[in-house]
Amino acid sequence: MTPEQPRAISDRLWVPDNPDGTGWADVDWVSAARGSRYHYRHGAPLAEARTAQPPFYLVRTRLESDELIPHENDYYVTREELADFVAEVALSGGAEVIWHIEPCQSPPTEARVSGPSNGADGYD
């Protein structure tokens, strides 16, 4: 596929509201958000987009059930692991649900998480 082909396909399938490629569209595939709208824009190439991300994320979950008192857990994950981690909790977390996600520049030492550093480890 030539570099021009993805642009041609996108231009044919997706007509943005604004000349800069941004706009709003109805959410029609996620039942929890159905009826609302999402904002879209063209994305940067992957390598460039990765450099704009924080190196880590804090994912806070909440565990609550009839058998347990409410409990919150903080997980620190690298930017590359975020999507897989969120999918894993969402699909198999049971009573443990995602409470919120926030950027993190440096997790606590106690988290024992290694990740993006100087680019030599494949993260950049």
Structure notes:
This protein has helices at residues 4-13, 46-52, 82-92, and strands at 23-26, 37-40, 56-63, 71-78, 96-104. It is of the alpha+beta class and 124 residues long. It folds into 2 domains: 4-40, no CATH class; 46-111, Ubiquitin-like (UB roll). The strands form 2 sheets. It has a 3-stranded antiparallel sheet, covered by helices on one side. The chain has a two-stranded antiparallel ribbon with strand order 1-2. A hairpin with a 7-residue loop joins strand 3 (56-63) and strand 4. The longest helix is centred in the last third of the chain and has 11 residues, at 82-92. The two termini are 25 Å apart. Residues 117-124 have low confidence and may be disordered.
